[in-house]
Amino acid sequence: MVLLRRIAPAVGLFFLAPLVAEFLLGNLPVTLLPALVLLAPLYGGGALLIREVTRRAGRGVPTMLVLGYGLLEEGIATQSLFNPHYVGADLLSVGYVPWLGIAVPWTLFVLTLHAVGSTTVPIVMAELCARERTTPWLGRPGLVVAAALLVVGIAGNAAFQMANDPFRATPAQFVATVVLAALAAVVGLRLPRRAELPGPVPAPWAIGSIGLVAGVLGELAPMSYAGVAVLAALWVVLAGLAARWSVRAAWTPRHTLAAAAAALVTYAWHAFPETPVVPVSNAVDLVGNAVFALGAVLLITMAWRRTAVASTIDTSSDISS
Fold it and tell me: I need a surface site. Which of 35, 40, 267, 313 has the fewest CB within 10 A?
């Protein structure tokens, strides 16, 4: 029974991460669900590894945000950080820095997307729905499997990308990507643990409202240096508020849920005006977006109910730690 309580959320996270990152966002249409064969090891393996390493180290959400998953995907698996015509888009046309081989606006945008939507939000939602939120779900063999899945996911997606695009990043760019991801992991795992302090915090609905406003501002930010300024300002403001409120004893799992739910809702509404990378009819696109949005609502509802059952859930340390 204990084993099931740990394996079930791990399996759920394995599939939830790619569903949020690609399908709820509207990047991929519902007709590409079979692509989970490639996407689940990449996103799910990465989210599982980040979650398990973070919890084994006694850390929480700040560490999850810092760990360098996005660098590995966009620098190695897809090479979009360096490819000027990735999926036919001119992602590096604005803010390109020749000596780095990247465009600052696209790099900040896509790494923010991965830090929040591809890993941290799916992890938080899976934990909030689980009985054991802050303890490891996997033993050492499971940790090895998660790491292997991530490697397989990166290799598989890189092979697919290279088979469909002649672009190749330079060896120096690949090495720099790995080094920066490793440095991000070191920094993330050295962040201080959460210490509960006295003081009030806003109600969960207020936290959610702040998250929704931040989501709108982030989505409307242009792919330019003006957009970089907006995203950087959002990171600074939100980090400051989180550092002030989430360390207080009055901060509850429902506050964390409100923040994560705001991100899910932002992804859901973004999907409707978004054009998927693989063309489908408007009807199919609309139905798919509606199905995934409904799934997000159901997931939020489930987490809301689960966070009310404090007596049956591991509350040894808060999820925001």
Answer: 35
Closest CA to 39 of 182, 160, 185: 160
Q: CA angle, corner 89, sides to 88 and 92, nearest 5?
A: 130
d(CA 67, CA 61): 10
Do 82 and 169 touch, CB atoms closer than 8 A? yes
Q: Between vectors from CA 285 to CA 279 and to CA 290, what angle results, nearest 5°?
A: 160
DSSP 181: H
Instruction: Kindly state the helix (H) or strand (E) to which residue 97 belongs, with its residue range.
Output: strand 96-97
Instruction: Give exposure, 235-260, as e/b (b: 16+ Cβ within 10 Å).
Output: beebeebbeebbbbeebbbbbbbbbb
User: What is the amino acid identity at position 184?
Assistant: A
Q: Give the tens place of pLDDT for each residue, 116-129.
A: 999 999 999 999 99
> In this predicted structure, what is the pLDDT of residue 2?
60
